[in-house]
Amino acid sequence: MCSPFAAESLSDPDGVVVLTTPDGRDGASPDPASPDPASPGRTALDRLSSLPCVVVAVDRATGDTPALADVVAEKGVASAEQIARAVERNPVAATTLVLCLREASTSLGRALVAESAAYSVLQAGAEFSRWRASRPVRTGRLETEAAVLIERAGDRLDLVLNRPLVRNALNGAMRDGLLEGLALAAADDSITTVVLRGAGPSFCSGGDLDEFGSFTDPAAAHIVRLTTSIGRSIDAVGSRLVARVHGPCAGSGVELPAFASRVVARPDFTAALPEVGLGLIPGAGGTASITRRVGRHRLALLALSGARIDATTALQWGLVDEVSDEEWLE
Q1: Residue 170: which of 287, 291, 251, 262 has the closest Cα?
Q2: Count of domains for the chain
Q3: What range defines the domain where residue 153 resides?
Q4: Which element (helix H / strand E) includes 159?
Q5: What is the pLDDT of residue 285?
Q6: Contacts of 260 (CB under 8 A, 6+ apart)
Q7: pLDDT-based confidence at residue 82 (cuts at 50, 70, 90)
Q8: Domain presence at residue 133
Q9: What CATH number has the domain bearing residue 217?
């Protein structure tokens, strides 16, 4: 890692995967976490932070956080080989994700800016264009009901995702409805409980794929995305908001509830982050919200592998706070 030719050897646009030991040290000694900037491990860590490669620890041998790794293979979720194949399929998106996560800010605002900028760049890239060309956009779907139901009873406000025929795929109308309901909750202190839930078989299947890439100007889309951030609006409501998730969820259907102070999952809940497979990265704030809950290594594991985890695993990781099949409307 300290070779003077490291930048050249680890900067291939077709993707570079570096396998490291389970503790993430890759032979560096002393400890890369050492505060001494002159230590070999610390030097390796600093140099690695800007090199465009995906560092994979081959196994989660202990509960310790690997120092140099971007992602840690985990039995039952994804192996190092599966991660490497995902990087090979979409190397630019995969590498962009880990670079974004390495420098993830503790400031929510800064994290959202970094994610949106990276997402917008990828929307103009070849990998996303290839996916978009492979999936024709469907048009003409007529929807007569509101995409979000805003229901108040006393001091409780329910925000109900209401596109059950498409498993509550997040489109522009749903975004606007959520922003309206969340603004109401943020402005009215008499609302003591806000419940975010979904109608139908799934809380949210992710972004509406027919709207992906609908902006012709990715730079303008970056500004719009920051102006209309649902995740920031959820965060603003604070401890009053609980998200109740169920069924197969993906993408924004996992990223957005992770902003909530409390997430309750039904036993049939599953979670996946498929965006890298589309040539993108999570774009609904997931690099901030999910990282705060499970750490950057497990976010990268889900996103790079495309694996789907069940409610039990989500609870163990801290992605959800409770698993319950009790009647939710009570």
Answers
A1: 251
A2: 2
A3: 145-273+306-323
A4: strand 156-161
A5: 96
A6: 196, 234, 241, 242, 243
A7: very high
A8: no
A9: 3.90.226.10
